[in-house]
């Protein structure tokens, strides 16, 4: 078994916590330190030295795919942003919920007070 959780009783060997790079050397028998989620792998130092280049090779092999995936994500986010922006702009309510129009709506520009009163009277007369 290569994988051990913290608090497990283990035999002689070298145990690595890859989350923080910690190495624990156990000479006889002992208990691995850490919380419930801490995981250790039993592997000699030579195993780590061999795994280093292999992990680097895997990273280099998948790096182009990671770049392509990131590019696709950015393009899709930009396209979705433009679609939702245009939808948001076309769905206008004509009022702002945070404002109260207690004094009435604003008068149209270009009309004087007299003209606006006359137009109000005309509207009332038609009703």
Number of helices: 2
Largest sheet: 4 strands, antiparallel
Structural class: alpha+beta
Distance linking N and C termini: 89 Å
How many beta-strand runs? Answer: 6
What is the alpha-carbon Rg in Å? 35 Å
Could you estimate the helical fraction of the residues in percent? 40-55%
Low-confidence stretches: none
Task: Give an overview of the whole structure.
There is one protein chain. With 127 residues, the chain is α+β, with helices and mostly antiparallel strands. The chain has a domain at 3-81. It contains two helices and six strands. The strands form two sheets. Strands 1-6-3-4 form a four-stranded antiparallel sheet, with no helix packed on it. A two-stranded antiparallel ribbon has the order 2-5. The longest helix is centred in the middle third of the chain and has 46 residues, at 45-90. The model has no long low-confidence stretch (mean pLDDT 82).
What is the fold's blueprint, element by element?
Blueprint: E1 3-5, E2 9-10, E3 13-17, E4 22-26, E5 30-31, E6 39-42, H1 45-90, H2 113-126
Antiparallel strand pairs: 1-6, 2-5, 3-4, 3-6
Task: Describe the structure concisely.
The protein is an alpha+beta fold and 127 residues long. It has 2 helices and 6 strands; from the N terminus they run E-E-E-E-E-E-H-H.
What distinguishing features does this structure have?
alpha+beta; 6 strands; 127 residues; single chain; two-stranded antiparallel sheet
């Amino acid at each position: 078994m290569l994988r051990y959780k913290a608090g497990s009783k283990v035999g002689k060997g070298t145990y690595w916590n890859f989350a923080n790079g910690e190495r624990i050397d156990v000479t006889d028998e002992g208990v691995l330190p850490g919380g419930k989620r801490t995981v250790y792998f039993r592997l000699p130092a030579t195993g780590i030295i061999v795994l280093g280049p292999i992990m680097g090779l895997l990273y280099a092999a998948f790096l182009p795919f990671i770049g392509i995936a990131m590019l696709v994500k950015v393009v899709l986010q930009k396209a979705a942003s433009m679609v939702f922006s245009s939808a948001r702009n076309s769905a206008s309510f004509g009022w702002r919920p945070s404002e109260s129009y207690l004094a009435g709506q604003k008068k149209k520009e270009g009309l004087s007070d007299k003209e606006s009163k006359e137009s109000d009277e005309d509207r009332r007369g038609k009703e």
